Amino acid sequence: MAAGTPVRTGTAIDLSGVSVRFTSKRSQTTALDDVSLRIAPGEFVTIVGPSGCGKSTLLKIVAGLVRPTSGDVSLMGRPVAGPQKDIGFVFQRAALLEWRGARANILLQAEMRGMDRRAAAQRADGLIEMTGLRGFEKALPHELSGGMQQRVALCRALLHSPPVLLMDEPFGALDALTRESMNAEMNRIWRDTGTTVVLVTHSIAEAVFLGTRVVVMSPRPGRILRTFDVDLPAHRDYAQVMSDARFDRLATELRGLLGSVAAH
Asked: Taking every annotated instance into account, which residue ranges of this chain make up the domain ABC transporter (predicted)?
């Protein structure tokens, strides 16, 4: 757990002995094999591993979009038996409706969930303020930069105040400077909301900068090789963290582990 992170009791996400096998007429593929992971409320857990190791599948299992072949999954103490409503999900692409402005795209979540209109509007305005989108409420997606589109998608995912936010490589398509800015923004949002976050990424720097823990997965079939605690303060300035010896040590260790895995 990062220094300065509030300690909370209970379990937000619990995977126990989870395996996933996809079967077709010609073959059977094991995507995940005996994965066990417990995440406490308020943690920011990042997941890294080779392409195709089942990272995205793991998120979909937590969301109830994929059922495990074996093992148990619970979310906020309740078994996951189908698609979960009490989560937010942010994908690599913002997937905004091109004919709706930023605020209208955010409020799409409220329409789909049948939320109270007034409460949803107030929540949307607060998120717009928090993410720096003030002044762009009516802007159409093509009028927004990639980073701003992802901010809209993030606001949409947070509109119903989910206790758990799942993020699947959300900043992978952004340029380097925008990605750094979004990482810093994500750290602030996590601290401000107290949401439990699980983020899949291919970037070691992103995993260490954002995470309170980093989970490293093996090539398919995906297994958890190791988990690393991130010894950095909860409040993270990008430039300071990049020059911190603790960041450098962990990033180097992760790079070495992933490199040795790839070599085999």
From this structure: 15-244
